[in-house]
Amino acid sequence: MTAELPARPGVVERWHHVVEHCDLAALDALIADDAVFSSPAVFTPQEGKAKVLAYLRAALTVFDGTGFHYVEEWYGDRSAVLEFATELDGIHVNGIDLVHWNDRDQITSFKVMVRPVKGLQALIPLMAAQLSPS
């Protein structure tokens, strides 16, 4: 007998839509005003919807065309762990997105962890280029 997988929460389904279609309007609606983004490369959490959107838009741009995909997912009542894999400049990158949401199905916390260190080192300048003022 095979165990049945839990249903993917609506928030996670909407996040997958954003990633697959680079749908920035849907991304805006998905992020709560008081959301916090925790980067693997920045010491302090980035607080507020505008900062969270900036980091997530940058990541969508950086990972576009890299083979970024989610490998596995685990769900809680208002949280999810999404394991991803991709390749940056010939370096295999693996990590997780740890996502929490509120009762309005808006993301309140988005924490990214990346391995190996060489992968993080490849990611940092790419993200910095996207986040730097034009």
Automatic annotation (TrEMBL):
Residues 12-108 form the SnoaL-like domain. Signal peptide: none annotated. It comes from the Bacteria. InterPro entries: NTF2-like_dom_sf, SnoaL-like. This is SnoaL-like domain. It comes from Rhodococcus wratislaviensis (Tsukamurella wratislaviensis).
